[in-house]
Amino acid sequence: MTVASNLGFPRIGHRRALKTALEAHWAGKSGEAALLREAAALREAHWRHQHGAGLAHIPSGEFSLYDHVLDTATMLGAVPAGYGWDGGGPVSLATYFALARGNAEKPALEMTKWFDTNYHYLVPLLARDQRFVLTENRPLASFREAASSGLRTRPVLLGPVSFLRLAKTTDGSDPLDLLDALVPVYARILRELAEAGAVMVQIDEPVLALDLPARARDAFARAYGALAKAGPELLLASYFGPIGDNLPTVLGLPVAGLHLDLCRGSLDLGPVLEQARPDLALSLGLVNGRNIWRADLRACLATAQRVAEARDARLLMIAPSCSLLHVPLDLAEETGLPAELAGNLAFAMQKLVEIKLIARGLDEGEAAIAAALDESDAAIAARAASDSVHNKAVASRLAEATDAMTRRRSAFPVRRVAQRSALDLPRFPTTTIGSFPQTTEVRRARAAHAKGAIDDAAYDAAIETWTREAISWQEAIGLDVLVHGEFERNDMVQYFGERLAGFAFTRHGWVQSYGSRCVAPPIIWADVSRPAPMTVRWARFAQSLTEKPVKGMLTGPVTVLQWSFVREDIPRETTCRQIALALRDEVADLEDAGIRVIQIDEPALREGLPLRAAERDAYLAWAVDCFRLSASPVRDATQIHTHMCYADFEDILDAIAALDADVISIEATRSRMALLEAFEKRNYPNEIGPGVWDIHSPRVPEAAEMAALLERAAARLDPDRLWVNPDCGLKTRRWDEVRPALENMVAAARRLRAATHST
Ligand SMILES: Nc1nc2c(c(=O)[nH]1)N[C@@H](CNc1ccc(C(=O)N[C@@H](CCC(=O)N[C@@H](CCC(=O)N[C@@H](CCC(=O)O)C(=O)O)C(=O)O)C(=O)O)cc1)CN2
Ligand SMILES: [Zn+2]
Question: Which segments constitute the Cobalamin-independent methionine synthase MetE N-terminal domain (predicted)?
Answer without folding.
Answer: 4-310
